[in-house]
């Protein structure tokens, strides 16, 4: 377990007669950027919800940061970072208020919150807009702020659920540069996306089709295996 940030075996989630996640198995190494790819409705978000302690599996086992997803969900929630597609920010609060609010949610002391607030605003260059409501920020800044806020408590593992949905390609590339910086600092990044070109930015990817992991390897190995030039081509061949 010590070598893995995430370890999953036979993980399954059923809703009545419908199987949303079908006996998936994979490991994620510490410090790895792991892409969890698939079309909308493939089961990505359902699987992530089990990993972050928001939904109990029907069958199978899973460990995140060494904690059992069945019995230690609360420990997992406190020890990970999570960024949803909608950025999890409060639009009516200012930039500074959002950072301080999430610092409090994650149990930081007043001194730690003050230090983290300064660090995040310096890193993102947000001092000029610190007292403006988040609603007034450009989409790219909201995205980067939401990512920073998800790591305000210095988690070892960060889960990103469709973090680049709805933003233009230039902003997407900028955001991936930020992800690289955090991975270089030793954080494990688990990211779901339906943009197949983003698979190229990951160390390894799994591709889900109808609730099952149909392929898992590095982008280059998958392209070689499926005789494809792009990950889009790989996905199309798997989805047939």
TrEMBL record:
GO terms for molecular function: ATP binding; ATP hydrolysis activity. Keywords: ATP-binding, Membrane, Nucleotide-binding, Transmembrane, Transmembrane helix, Transport. InterPro entries: AAA+_ATPase, ABC_transporter-like_ATP-bd, P-loop_NTPase. Gene3D superfamilies: P-loop containing nucleotide triphosphate hydrolases. This is ABC transporter ATP-binding protein. It is found in: Membrane. Pfam families: ABC_tran. It is a multi-pass membrane protein. GO terms for cellular component: membrane. Residues 6-235 form the ABC transporter domain. It comes from Pelagihabitans pacificus.
């Amino acid at each position: 377990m010590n070598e893995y940030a995430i370890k999953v075996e036979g993980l399954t989630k059923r809703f009545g007669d419908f199987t949303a996640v079908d006996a998936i198995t994979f490991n994620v190494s510490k410090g790895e950027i792991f892409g969890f790819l698939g079309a909308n409705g493939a089961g990505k978000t359902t699987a992530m919800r089990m990993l972050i302690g928001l939904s109990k599996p029907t069958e199978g086992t899973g460990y995140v940061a060494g904690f059992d997803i069945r019995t230690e969900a609360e420990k997992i929630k406190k020890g990970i970072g999570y960024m949803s597609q909608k950025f999890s920010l409060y639009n009516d609060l200012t930039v500074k208020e959002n950072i301080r609010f999430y610092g409090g949610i994650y149990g930081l002391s007043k001194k730690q919150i003050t230090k983290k607030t300064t660090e995040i605003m310096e890193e993102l260059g947000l001092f000029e807009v610190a007292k403006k409501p988040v609603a007034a920020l450009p989409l790219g800044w909201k995205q980067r702020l939401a990512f920073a806020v998800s790591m305000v408590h210095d988690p070892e593992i960060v889960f990103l659920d469709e973090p680049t949905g709805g933003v233009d390609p230039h902003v997407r590339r900028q955001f991936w540069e930020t992800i690289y910086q955090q991975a270089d600092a030793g954080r494990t990044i688990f990211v779901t996306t339906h943009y197949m070109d983003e698979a190229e930015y990951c160390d390894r990817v799994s591709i889900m089709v109808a609730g099952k992991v149909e392929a898992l390897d590095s982008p280059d190995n998958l392209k070689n295996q499926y005789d494809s030039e792009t990950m889009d081509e790989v996905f199309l061949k798997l989805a047939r």
